[in-house]
DNA sequence: ACCTGAACACCGTTCAAGT
DNA sequence: ACCTGAACACCGTTCAAGT
């Protein structure tokens, strides 16, 4: 070995090469033993910069989130556009590196990139008219919706483009030949099942959540303006399941 | 070894014990080498019943889905209630075995339990008034919403109850001490961030999607038979996205 | 301080051999 | 037909030793 000068290995370079290795050879290939040679270094040298493999994975997750945040226009005046921009950027950043994304998308990162993302979303919630508990609650719905869908999609893409295409065909193949007496509903729409665009669903699911934010924010605004009456006023019961309503005491 | 008569090992028993081992010792412990002794058998004996580890994982996923389907009342007349029932049952079944659930929730199973689930959801979409491409599209939004949230939640639970509680505290600890000048919005609601109930968010996210299904189904019904649609109430306006309105009768 | 190389305690999977 | 045990090609992580 000995192909590289001492002190030239950095966390940033390790993260970069780790992502390359995982995308090129499959996420199973992301091992210290392969990563070392790819960096021109002994496999165990990486452990001088990351305590264990988990710490490396979290750093990769942070990098993906950094990539997403870099694309967001933080001066966009509309809170709704800011959230959509962040969501689309996150989706793009994760799908651009599906194999590593699948490994980290459901992790809690607790790094600076995560703090900044939380800050951005909560700021948007407050601009929408929510505050306190309602803002915290809706932040979580928005964040988890983006993360859950992103993780799901990353997992789908991580299996590889060829397998994915084959999976799409499987909807045509396997589902079309299911016995019609036992699966009449599937047979009725089987031909359409493979046509569905996943990006459209992501957007739709998000729009629905943001509609809810908007409705609740406006209602809360009315309350502040003096209107103690209205649909939302009666819903502020301590035992109600409708957590999104602003029940500030 | 030799603790067990020949021919008494079955796929069902392997799946059952595998789930026990994973929940008791952590999902990392789900290896053939530990599974064998737990079954009173050589580690490689399991390979006589499952081609490889992936096939075992898919069988575990199918079992989880079977558990969920067994709880659903298939004769429930309201399509909306059937979907909610299926969704809650899926959530319960997966959270009841979080460690194995985390391993399989994002997989495509392509087994009988999955076919039956697809059939149930598409049937509900058609009863809601959707058909063809719209039914297929909305099926995917509903199914992916349930799967994505379930997978996400399973991953959260899989880290262990103690770590989870510590994570909850982390919201109090780490987020409360963030510098207020850089993260003013976080500081404003930090005290509420740890109070959010995840089950409520799951329900809310689902209700939002089902509202969309209902709105589209009613609209389609109006187009088809000029206004009267038995499956949905007339008081549900198709263009109303105000999710505070519940169209359930 | 940073890196190496051997060692330790594990993996999944294959395969000839047993019953 | 079903199961065993050895073997093969891998893992992450530790640690004494080098520079």
Topology at a glance:
Two copies of one chain form a homodimer.
Chain A: H1 11-25, H2 32-39, H3 53-71, H4 79-96, H5 98-104, H6 112-127, H7 132-158, H8 161-176, H9 184-193, H10 198-224, H11 231-234
Helix pairs in contact in A: 1-2, 1-3, 3-4, 3-5, 3-6, 4-6, 4-7, 4-10, 5-7, 6-7, 7-10, 8-9
The structure holds a DNA duplex (19 and 19 nucleotides).
Instruction: Please give the most extensive interface between any two protein chains, plus how many residues each contributes.
Output: A-B, 64 and 60 residues
Structural class assignment of chain A: mainly alpha
**C-alpha Rg of chain A (nearest Å):** 23 Å
Report mean pLDDT of chain A, rounded to a whole number: 84
What is the CA–CA distance across the termini of chain A? 66 Å
Tally of DSSP helical segments of chain A: 11
Range of strand content of chain A: under 5%
- Outline of chain A, from the CA principal axes? flat
**What's the main sheet of chain A like?**
none
Low-confidence spans of chain A: 226-249
Total beta strand runs of chain A: 0
What are the secondary-structure elements of chain A, in order, as H or E? HHHHHHHHHHH
DNA-binding region (chains A, B): 31-50
Keywords (chains A, B): DNA-binding, Transcription, Transcription regulation
Pfam families (chains A, B): TetR_C_1, TetR_N
Protein name (chains A, B): HTH tetR-type domain-containing protein
């Amino acid at each position: 070995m000995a192909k590289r000068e001492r002190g030239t290995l950095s966390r940033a370079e390790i993260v970069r090469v780790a992502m390359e290795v995982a995308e090129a050879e499959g996420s199973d290939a992301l091992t210290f033993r392969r990563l070392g040679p790819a960096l021109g270094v002994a496999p165990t040298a990486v452990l001088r910069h990351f305590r264990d493999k988990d710490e490396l994975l979290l750093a990769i997750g942070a990098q993906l989130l950094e990539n997403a945040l870099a694309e967001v226009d933080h001066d966009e005046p509309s809170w709704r556009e800011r959230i959509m921009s962040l969501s689309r950027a996150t989706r793009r950043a994760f799908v651009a590196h599906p194999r590593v994304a699948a490994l980290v998308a459901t992790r809690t990162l607790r790094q600076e990139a995560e703090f900044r993302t939380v800050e951005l979303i909560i700021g948007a919630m407050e601009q929408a008219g929510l505050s306190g508990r309602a803002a915290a609650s809706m932040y979580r719905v928005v964040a988890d919706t983006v993360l859950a869908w992103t993780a799901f999609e990353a997992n789908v893409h991580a299996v590889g483009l060829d397998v994915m295409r084959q999976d799409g065909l499987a909807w045509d193949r396997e589902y079309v030949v299911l016995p019609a007496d036992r699966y009449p509903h599937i047979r009725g729409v089987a031909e359409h099942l493979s046509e569905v665009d996943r990006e459209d669903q992501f957007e739709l699911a998000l729009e629905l959540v943001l509609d809810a934010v908007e409705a609740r924010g406006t209602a809360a605004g009315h309350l502040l303006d003096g209107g103690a009456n209205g649909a939302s006023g009666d819903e502020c019961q301590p035992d109600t399941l409708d957590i999104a309503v602003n029940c500030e005491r």
